[in-house]
Amino acid sequence: MQIKRFHCTAIVCLVLSLCLTGCGSFDKRTPVVKAYDKAKAAYNQREYNTAVAGLTSFLENYPRSSLASLSRFYLAETYRQMKLYENAIAQYDDFIVKNTYTPLVPTAIYWKAFSLQQLDRYDEASSAYNSIILHFEDIAPDWAYCAEQRLIQLAPSLVE
Q1: Could you tell me if residue 49 is inside a domain?
Q2: Domains in the chain: how many in total?
Q3: In this predicted model, what pLDDT tens digit does every residue of 78-123 receive, in sequence order?
Q4: Does residue 139 lie in a domain region?
Q5: Does the predicted TM-score (pTM) go above 0.90?
């Protein structure tokens, strides 16, 4: 009788604990993924100061993670959204150097050029836009087209 009561109590406790914890649906993400997701969520919610802190911390704590390159890219994006163009340019450069063959490189070069343009560094912006057209026209035609449009817009500033 004691054993049956023990088993019933154990089963009730197990069922209650499963129900109280979401019936076993606990968060299975690793600490690395959780840290990245938290920082990226801040970026998505336009909480840029929180995103900068989270992404910077992520890169300091997990520099060799497979998510480090995305963190670097979103850190650059965050600085650009904050209009901290010098910081954005530095992060885009870091991303481009460390991720030469990833699909986000044309995007990073485009937004680096945009940031340079915002700082009136027209020659550098022009060079970056031209590099997209020259090196990525076949694999990133949309970015090449956007770069061409920016060059047209930039032309009067280059004459000065």
Answers
A1: no
A2: 1
A3: 999 999 999 999 999 999 999 988 899 999 999 999 999 999 999 9
A4: yes
A5: no
